[in-house]
Specification:
The chain has helices at about 1-45, 50-55; strands at about 60-70, 75-80, 85, 90-100, 105, 110-115, 120-125, 130-135, 150-155. The chain is of the alpha/beta class. The longest helix has about 45 residues, at about 1-45.
Length: about 160
């Protein structure tokens, strides 16, 4: 009886091991299938970063500096970018960095007015929803008259 009991215990141990391994493999396979389905669904949707990149692609971005030079012993304030052209409906982002002097950025027709502190990049964003040619400028006394202005053109 001792041999029979030992054989029975051994046989049961083998059965438990085989069933355990099969059960584990079944769970792994099910988990992989679930992950595979989830991965397929995610690839169809895309990632948040991809969506952000797509949005970024739709934004028309411009960068300029605001500064002054001395001409004939007088300060001559100006923007480094004198013309901006976009299409109606474009999202516009203008980055202005004041590198010398005291300036701002004003675009009346789009209700834009931003101070541009020295050595700081200021980001201005809006939608170009009006067709035409508009003037952006620095509203500090005498700056626009001295040439610190540019043209913002919106086409159909």
């Amino acid at each position: 009886m001792n041999k029979k009991s030992l054989l029975l215990v051994g046989a049961l141990a083998v059965v438990f091991v085989v069933v355990g391994v099969m059960n584990r493999e079944s769970k792994d396979t099910t988990g992989e299938d679930m992950l595979g389905d989830a991965a397929e669904n995610l690839s169809d949707i895309g990632t948040a970063d991809q969506g952000l990149e797509a949005m970024e692609d739709d934004i028309k971005e411009f960068a300029m500096t605001s500064f002054y030079e001395m001409k004939d012993g007088k300060p001559a304030p100006q923007f480094s970018l004198r013309k901006i052209t976009v299409k109606k409906g474009d999202q516009v982002r203008i980055k202005v960095t004041n590198t010398k002097g005291v300036h701002d950025f004003t675009l009346d027709d789009y209700s834009v007015f931003e101070e541009t502190p020295l050595d700081q990049e200021v980001t201005i964003e809006f939608t170009a929803d009006k067709v035409g040619e508009f003037v952006y400028y620095c509203s500090k006394p005498g700056h626009r008259a001295a040439g610190q202005w540019g043209t913002f053109t919106v086409t159909e």
